[in-house]
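The aim of this short unit is practical: by the end, you should be able to scan a pair of folded records and say something sensible about each. We start with the first protein, listed as its amino acid sequence and then its structure tokens.
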Amino acid sequence: MMDIAGIREHLPHRYPFLLVDRVLELVPGESIVALKNLSVNEEFFQGHFPDKPVFPGVLMLEAMAQAAGILGFKSQDKTPADGSIYYFVGADDLRFKRPCVPGDQVILHARILGDRRGIWKFAVRAEVDGILCASATILCADRKG
């Protein structure tokens, strides 16, 4: 498990773009399960379909990528303070299956599929109450910050 302080050590993002609230499970070199709580107070809900607020898909993708970034950093025993940064560089097979709304607890899953010359490939998905909301295969580049 990892609380917000540990997450801030392993991601360079800060509010309002820090989209992981807690790490529930982590197996370095394999997988991560993380949590994003969606509060009606999030700024993006004020302008993204304000009469029927929906978590923007691009932010859902970013949240999944941030979970994968934590997994990558922990798998290499590095942090951004070590001069390393993970750039989100691509997504394949991205699908949105269910909208996420205020009050949802989004569970973010990432699994390492492989890495080659600093390019990491992850299978990611987001669920609410065990129902798939989004999934993709993403690429992240590990580079000097």
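Turning to the second protein, read its sequence before its tokens, just as you did above.
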Amino acid sequence: MDIRALEYFLTLAETLHFGRTSRLCHISPSALSRGIRQLEQEVGTTLLYRDNRRVSLTREGERFRDYARQAVSDWNTVRLALQDDQRVLRGELSLYCSVTASYSFLHDMLSSFRANFPRIEIKLHTGDPAQAEERVLAGTEDIAVGARPVQMPNGIAFHPVTRSALLFIAPASQPQLAERLSGKASGNAWSDVPMILSEEGLARERTDRWFRDLGLRPQIYAQVSGNEAIVSMVSLGFGIGVVPQIVLDNSPLANRIRILDVQPRLEAYEVGLFALEKRLGEPLIDAFWNQQNPG
């Protein structure tokens, strides 16, 4: 069975969109369709439901996806082992992170890694950091960057990279609001404040707990995916937000918001790398992981 065909199938299983998959894999839609049909003929069953509106995996397709992930991983491990005599690591490493991480601390990591391992291609995907663990657990990514949860999922390894304070922010254009909310928090001051919060993740959990301790439920104006969107909406005056300090340090809108000195403060969190424990011995993952954790 062609490894490249398995890689095409895995990409399609993630996007569930033939057009998007063909662009990501640099293959024509017709060639992609032929490759999928050939796979189905080889395994003797339908792997995907498709019609003019949607694509979805069949039950057999979900089982085949697990096989394909393991087969591609095993192939890369064997291929790299056979290349060991040349002492040059080659291949692809998928990495998931937020937009902020991609142009802050991760920039230096990737620059150093590229210098040490020029034959390893990094496939960088950006999105909501709250999905970091989920994407690693699902096998969608080799490594992901995110905040360490209170309870680590079984089978996930974490390597801390930095710590970041979690901050309340207000529009710079509304100094009276910022002044009213600064200092020791009270239910009267915060009961009607429009909040712009993450849909999910550690920041949302800690903010919800902070409001519960005040005996309040936050008045949600908007729930968004990604910290950069929170900064943008706050800068436009739509409400109060909660974001990590690292986001503000790298935001082009930092001069349009104001950090609130609120007591009690939200608990800071660790930002670092996630990977499956069982895959830490794979050559490419090991190379990236140990570059961040020498010795």
